[in-house]
Amino acid sequence: MLLNATRRSLAEREATEDEPEKKPSRWRAWRRQRPFVGGVLVIAAGLVMFLSSQLDFGKLHIQLGIEGLQATIVPLALVLLGALSIFMPAHRIFYGVIALGLAVYSIVGVNLGGFIVGMLLGCVGGITVVSWAPRSGEAASALAPGEEREVRTHGEKETA
User: Computed over its alpha carbons, how large is the radius of gyration of the chain?
Assistant: First the structure.
């Protein structure tokens, strides 16, 4: 019985080795064309900050600002910036810089930045969004429709 199982497993391995490798799934291809991880981190930071403003830890409930308005607006802005950086990768640098600035500001405006966790997630996510770059073949597809990119070669101006 053990010998038959070994023969079957060897035959299965050989059959899988002979199959051509599968192409990456559409989800993986879509995800690699945008700053997905950074956007998810920024969204998570916004959610952590929002939940930290709604929770009480014993007698620890801190709200600075105009009646806690900042504790709602800053997290919602971070969630929006994270989603926009995922769905509009052409403007990722703008969204990442704004998200990074809001994350740093949240330490003053939103319960110590979501008890520090939200601020750290927002900073790492904002930096990841800013530092992400499409592969060289994907660079032209990351541009907004109708947007042209100037390429300078030896002093001459070309459009790509």
Answer: 23
3-class secondary structure, 60:
strand
pLDDT(154) > 90: no
Closest CA relative to residue 55, chosen from 78, 40, 38, 75: 75
The structure tokens listed for 157 are 């101006």
Cβ atoms of 53 and 70 closer than 8 Å: no
Residues in CB range of 14: below 8 A, 6 or more apart: none
A 10 A CB-CB count for 142 gives 20
Closest C-alpha to 80, from 68, 65, 98:
98
E strand residue ranges, the chain: 150-153, 156-159
Q: Are 113 and 49 in contact (CB under 8 A)?
A: yes
Q: For residue range 94-151, list pLDDT tens digits in order.
A: 999 999 999 999 998 887 888 899 999 999 999 999 999 988 765 555 555 555 555 5
Cα(123)–Cα(42) distance, integer angstroms = 8
Distance CA(136)–CA(27), nearest Å, equals 20
Q: Give strand pairing partners of 57.
A: 60
